[in-house]
Specification:
The complex is a heterodimer. Chain A has ten helices and eight strands. Chain A is of the alpha/beta class. Chain B is globular. Classes of the chains: A alpha/beta, B alpha/beta.
Chain lengths: 282, 552
């Protein structure tokens, strides 16, 4: 069945929002999967709470619209229960890097086979403009009117340290590349992390800033951890520097879900084993 | 009631729990019902530990104040306990105690040396010496070692035998007729009940007194085909479990009050998104970190009302291992039929206490099935139905788009802020509660015990019921124990209270949480007997306090 990939839900993103690009990209990827003969019935989208998360309402595929910061544990549970499913998380930067940072680090540590797309607009949009863990030092938001007094995280550096096996950065105004990075992330067996620089047209419009600094990673050996470290540290999400886009690091390792194979024990056999255990404790 | 109690004490790390379990098995094979209570501080090594094994010719679930035998691995055990049981028979480790006025000593070191046995067998020396003092036939001792200490049974039997041969029978315990029962801890019973209810995954972060449930299921994961996961914190625990359930796997989590605090956003998510989940909360003494290894009953209100918003939930509070088994299975089935969170509310006394259980005599509870999508009409995750239960299917099912949502949503699972839809969907969830309440009339939600027509009744819940049973038997009282606390079983509760003129609540908290709940449901208590020092009521203590209340 070829399905309409967009639901009738009314779209409420602001004009010019980078989420449109991400939704379109995901839609194209899903359509491509369907064209290749893969059933979209086996795909689950897991979102947090924030502007990004409306994508759960808009894309006509299985979805779990979870809580702020909690995409990863939900996605991990889904993948463990049914490893046949392709599980894609869309999370915001507040979601992934503030409220749910612990889960992000543990997902990388476990190498659970899910794809994590962070809609990183570096500002809280849905709550109308406060700083996030990736806002630059001095960012003036509604909760920090005189400017933030803390440096941002470099999420790529964090993910390298935590053991993520696929680390990439995309940009919502470079959609063909973004599609390629996400496709490769989905194909990657293990925890795939994609930080997406996303434009927030209403509260932190960085188009000009990004346009003049982004460049594509070419000739970069994604298997080289040391090189990956150097590359992810080139831009620290704060000071001016060239901003590389592409895959920084990729490595094959056993996944968490592989280590929990399904062991089927029939209900009858279970009952017998329960009885045996009662008997053994006599 | 014929009864005998043995206290085995030593320092943490001495294997006191195992020694207590072996003593309990000796009684079990003499034909007694047993209960084991373990008392230990929140330490790994050092600190005083003791196991109290009580045996009786009737089912029991509490320890009492009287001690008949004191098995002391060290001097501290004598110092702490002997003043409270001056008449008890002492069997002490000669290597670590000073002289004793009466009783027997046995040198663990000497016996281990003579048998060239490793230090780990030291407790078996004490068990052998105790068995001889109690006049337990050697055949039973040897049999219990072979059955319950299969690892290095020979070594243990050798040292036990030497201690047995060297000792004297000073206070024989008669064998009584009756087959040995299964000895199960409350947490083992909960675990087996969940498995019987179809458990597929158990997810938990260690927290006393729930941790032994995690250990038990992890240790038996292969046997039962389970996935047992220990994630980064309790927030991840419940969210992971909800993901697992969303994908179709029957999943449970376990924790204590502090961990449950972190789970409340996930609980509310389960309520809104209608995700089935079993949550085992084993209470310890609060508030906050409190007394990690001691008991309490102060989280009834918390469990009943936790989570933002209103949504149906099942709360069951079993009193002993048998009830823990049957109600844990029932909680799983009901969670899946109604797509709701279901709680098994336990406490340290139940979780870590060990009880005699007879598998063939457990109360069978109804097994209800989930309502599954038939694959016919377009799938709508939150389809409104007369009972409010939407047919379930899971991501991966052909031609179904399953949209699960924590926001207010329409029948398709799409976010909505429409006033009419919000009302409709809220009422849909409410309908499930009404239906569940109706369903529960087929379950024994309120247990009435003791003298059924007595006009004075003890009102209790959870593990406290066991002490109440004994007091009621001695004083001719009725015991009323609601096992199901949500939805509150109004009809069964009223029926249970019929003819009661004096209702006395017995609880291990400071406010009488069940008494307050009963009042909300139109039944007032005349008095409350409360205890909040972390130790369970003993029947002796409770009897005295009940007598103070009922004799004006």
């Amino acid at each position: 069945m070829t399905r309409n990939l967009i639901t009738p839900a009314q779209n409420t993103w602001c004009p010019g929002c980078g989420n449109f690009a991400l939704q379109h990209t995901l839609k194209e990827i899903l359509a491509g999967m369907e064209n290749e003969g893969r059933s979209l019935d086996d795909v689950v989208l897991v979102t947090g709470i924030g502007c990004h998360a409306k994508i759960a309402d808009y894309l006509n595929i299985n979805s779990v619209y979870t809580l702020h910061g909690r995409t990863i544990p939900v996605a991990t549970g889904i993948k463990l229960a049914n490893p046949q499913l392709t599980v894609i998380c869309c999370a915001g930067d507040g979601d992934a890097y503030a409220e749910g940072l612990d889960h992000l680090i543990f997902a990388a540590k476990r190498n659970i086979d899910i794809t994590m797309i962070v809609h990183n607009n570096r500002v809280y949009g849905l709550t109308t403009g406060q700083y996030t863990p990736t806002s630059p030092l001095g960012f003036k938001g509604k909760s920090t009117p005189t400017g933030t007094t803390e440096y941002p995280f470099n999420p790529l550096e964090l993910m390298l340290a935590a053991g993520a096996t696929y680390i990439a950065r995309g940009y919502t105004r470079k959609m063909p590349q973004l599609a390629q990075l996400i496709r490769q992330g989905i194909a990657h067996k293990g925890f795939a992390f994609i930080d997406v620089l996303q434009i927030c047209a209403s509260f932190f419009n960085m188009i000009e800033y990004y346009q003049s600094r982004v460049y594509d990673l070419t000739g970069h050996d994604t298997a080289d951890f040391e090189r990956a470290c150097a590359k992810v540290m080139e831009w620290d999400y704060n000071r001016d520097a060239p901003i590389a886009l592409g895959v920084f690091y990729e490595r094959a390792l056993p996944t968490f879900d592989d280590r929990y194979p399904i062991r089927v024990v029939s209900p009858e056999e279970r009952t017998r084993r329960i009885r045996d255990l009662f008997e053994a404790s006599r | 009631m014929k009864e005998v109690s043995v206290l085995v004490g030593g320092k943490a790390g001495d294997g006191i729990n195992n020694a207590g379990a072996m003593v309990a098995q000796l009684f079990n094979h003499l034909g007694y019902f047993v209960y084991i209570y373990t008392d230990y501080p929140s330490l790994i090594r050092g600190g005083h530990n003791f196991a109290l094994v009580r045996a009786a010719d009737e089912p029991i679930g509490a320890y009492n104040d009287r001690i008949d035998y004191l098995v002391a691995l060290n001097q501290e055990t004598l110092d702490l306990h002997l003043p409270h049981c001056p008449d008890c028979t002492v069997i002490a480790n000669a290597d670590l105690v000073k002289s004793i006025k009466s009783g027997q000593t046995v040198s663990i070191n000497t016996i281990l040396k003579a048998e060239s046995a490793p230090p780990i067998t030291g407790n078996s020396v004490m068990i052998g010496a105790f068995a001889k003092a109690a006049g337990i036939p050697w055949e039973i001792v040897g049999d219990v070692f072979r059955r319950h200490m299969p690892k290095a049974a020979d070594e243990n039997i050798r040292v036990a035998r030497r201690a047995y041969d060297e000792g004297l029978t000073t206070r024989p315990i008669p064998a009584i007729s009756g087959p040995p029962h299964t000895l199960l801890s409350g947490n083992e019973a909960i675990g087996l009940g969940l498995v019987a209810g179809g458990l597929s995954a158990y997810i938990s972060y260690p927290m006393t007194p729930s941790s032994t449930l995690l250990h038990f299921l992890a240790g038996n994961a292969e046997r039962f085909g389970l996935k047992v996961i220990h994630p980064e914190n309790e927030i991840a625990v419940i969210l992971m479990a909800l993901g697992s359930a969303t994908a179709g796997a029957r999943t449970a989590v376990g924790t204590s009050g502090g961990g449950f605090c972190l789970m409340t956003e996930g609980l509310s998510f389960a309520g809104m998104a209608e995700i089935p989940i079993v949550i085992v909360v084993s209470q310890r003494t609060g508030p906050s970190t409190g007394l990690p290894t001691y008991t309490g009953q102060a989280e009834l209100r918390f469990v009943l009302y936790a989570g933002q918003g209103e949504f149906p939930r099942l709360v069951v509070a079993p009193a002993d291992a048998g009830e823990a088994y049957t109600w844990s299975a029932a909680a799983m089935h009901l969670a899946w039929k109604y797509q709701i969170p279901a709680f098994v509310l336990a406490d340290k006394t139940l979780s870590e206490g060990t009880y005699s259980v007879d598998y063939d005599r457990l109360t069978g509870l109804p097994v209800v099935d989930p309502v599954l999508w038939d694959g016919q009409a377009l799938y709508r995750r939150y389809r409104d139905t007369p009972a409010g239960i939407s047919p379930l299917t899971f991501p991966g099912r052909k031609d179904a788009v399953v949209k699960v949502n924590s926001y207010a949503h329409d029948e398709d699972g799409i976010t909505t802020e429409d006033a009419g839809l919000v009302t409709l969907m809220t009422e849909k969830r409410r309908k499930k509660e009404a239906q569940l309440k109706e369903e529960m009339t087929r379950y024994p939600c309120v247990s009435v015990r003791g003298t059924a027509d007595a006009t004075t009744a003890l009102l209790c819940w959870g593990s406290v019921r066991n002490a109440c049973d004994e007091v009621a038997a001695r004083l001719g009282l009725r015991v009323i124990q609601p096992v199901v606390l949500s939805p509150f079983p109004d009809q069964q509760f009223s029926a249970a209270c019929r003819g009661v003129q004096h209702l006395i609540a017995v609880e291990e908290n400071t406010t009488g949480q069940l008494a307050a709940l009963a009042r909300e449901h139109g039944v007032s208590t005349e008095a409350t007997i409360l205890k909040y020092d972390g130790r369970p009521f003993t029947p002796d203590e409770l009897r005295q306090r009940v007598q103070e209340v009922i004799t004006p």
